[in-house]
Amino acid sequence: MAISSAQRQLATGAAFFGAGCIAQLLSVAAWAPALKAHMVWLPGATLLCGLLLLPRARWPACLIGSLLGVLAVSMFRISAWDVLVTVGGDYLLVAATAAVLLRYRDGQRLMESFADIGRFILFACLLLPATSAWWVTTLARRNELNPYIGDWLNVALAHSLGYVLVVPAVVGIVSAAKQPERRNPASTASFVAVVLLAGLLWLTWSFPWDDIIVKRLLILAPIPFLVWALASFGIAGASVAMLLVAFLCMRMSVNGFGPFAAPDLAETILSAQFWAIGTAISLLFLAVLAEQRTTSRLMLKRAYQRLSKVTGRMLVVQEEERTRIARDLHDDINQSLAAVSIQLSAIKRELGQAQRESIDEIQEQLMSISKDIRDISHELHPSILRFTGLASAIEGLCEKHNASGELRLHCSTRNLPPLSEAQELGLFRIVQEAVNNIDKHAHASLARILLEGDRDGVSLTIEDNGIGYAPEIKHAPPPSLGLISMEERAKALGGNFDIARGPTGGTRVEVRFRAGAQPHGAD
Question: Residue limits of the Histidine kinase domain (predicted)?
């Protein structure tokens, strides 16, 4: 059932009404014992998140819903008109800031570059809190908010802290949800680690340290936790971790614990706010480095996937072209040679003995050429695969080499599961290329080919007693086209390709894949 525009606006307004209520309640809960001692103000931050993530058509619903949520929590103590004017003006500044951040962002994702973070810090963490604090403190002198609102610096820091803690966390979580490949899977061990590290931080800060130097060094205690969260979960995890650490820091500080606790409450609050804002900003810049590294890794992964698809398709096209050439050689050229031989036989009956001997020699040459063409045709497209299967094709390849060359091949196949035509052809081509490489480069006298199936899949092992393979040598020549071809065919089978020195010298090539895997590039 389609949802109308009015229903979307109503749902958005209701959601931000709830968000405004919760954000204002949390802000009140985080208030210091003194009335004019703000720790953090969250409604503006939740509204900024919505404006950055939702279409502009829903901005009015966001603004009205959040404003009514703050009003619903505050109106029991303060005049509704004073709340509407004060918070409404603040919200207009938030909307202007959101418009600027969206107008000048670098990419599709928010906060994905140093320029984005710089603009966010400038506009959302400096200019917006400064102007909002001026607006709020100016109006508070003339209305019922005056007993609750502190000085300009306290209000500005409370607003800035809300933006720098909440907005990156929410934006990071939403971005990770929209791009599953950027998400790091959360496990039970990860949550256990979060609880343990948070508990360790709480114990460290709550311990009554007497040494002033040790007490100041406690400022660094959250750093391992924050860096671990950043490395494990990216900008979303780091921002959430920073949010938890900041609230822990503020609550413990006003209760007289931790590195920021001081006899003067105002000094305690300012110290905790400055530390939380500075740490959060530093973490954001580190998060950008991590995000850019993740972006580069994902771009490389996608490029590799596209290359694998192109390579798989190229191998399919190559086999199709080989089949066409093999068919032309066998059906056209060989038939033409046979026709020429028949014509020579007809001419030979009309000639004398001396001329017949010459024609016999020509016919023998034609037969030799025909055999060579037939061999080339079979190498281009081994029809034996279709009629007798992979095991017989490999056995035939080994017998041919043993009959014509110095290299001796021992071939063995066992427990092979049913394979598709593409899988059989890919394995045969790998064996064919490996044997050609051994013939040309290994200086080997013996090679063993083992093709077998087990419960984990199919494995192909090719070993020789030649001069060996040493990829660890510096300045070694790049891999040959044959090795690249074998590796790409193994990947096209959905398997792994490994080449190394054999256990007794020589070279060992191994290919392993699951029998049920769908070959890449197969139609």
Answer: 328-517
Return d(Cα 282, Cα 278) in angstroms, integer. Answer: 6
Whether residue 318 is contained in a domain is answered as no
Is the overall model pTM greater than 0.85, yes or no? no
Residue 4, domain extent: 1-173
**Residues 38/24, Cβ–Cβ less than 8 Å:** no
Pick from 173, 188, 203: which residue ends a domain? 173
pLDDT the model gives residue 290? 78
What backbone phi and psi angles, to 5 degrees, belong to 451? -120, 120
Question: How far is 408 from 413, CA to CA, in rounded Å?
Answer: 17
> Above 50 in pLDDT, residue 245?
yes
* Residue (of 45, 293, 306) closest to 184 by Cα position: 293
**How many folded domains does the chain comprise?**
2
Q: Could you report the per-residue pLDDT of 479-519, keeping only the tens digit for each?
A: 566 787 888 888 888 888 888 888 777 888 999 988 765 55
Q: Specify whether the CB–CB gap between 469 and 501 falls below 8 A.
A: yes
Nearest Cα neighbor of 370 from 326, 418, 412, 338 is 338
Contact 243/49 with Cβ under 8 angstroms?
A: no
pLDDT at 475 over 50: no
List C-alpha distances in Å: 125 to 4, 151, 247, 285, 369.
36, 18, 18, 14, 83
Helix, strand, coil % over all residues of the chain, rounded to 5: 70, 5, 25
Of 139-153, 312-326, 405-419, the poorest mean pLDDT is in 312-326
Residue 256 lies in a domain: no
CA-nearest of 459, 466, 511, 461 to 485 is 511
Q: Provide the pLDDT for residue 17.
A: 94
Query: Mean pLDDT, to the nearest integer, of 438-448?
Result: 86
- Diameter of the chain by CA atoms? 132
Torsion of CA 203, 206, 212, 218, to 10 degrees: 50
CA dihedral 207, 213, 216, 218 (to 10 degrees): -50
Q: Is 262 left (phi over 0), alpha (psi -120 to 50) or beta?
A: beta
The amino acid occupying position 499 is I
Dihedral sign computed on CA atoms, order 34, 35, 40, 42: positive
In whole angstroms, what is the distance from residue 130 CA to residue 159 CA? 9
CATH at residue 503? 3.30.565.10
| Closest to 168 measured CA to CA, from 250, 101, 75 | 101
Which of 173, 199, 226 is the last residue before a domain boundary?
A: 173
470 lies in a domain?
Answer: yes
Asked whether residue 319 is domain-assigned, the answer is: no
d(CA 303, CA 36): 56
pLDDT per position as a tens digit, 326-385: 677 766 777 787 788 788 787 877 777 777 777 778 878 888 888 777 777 766 666 666
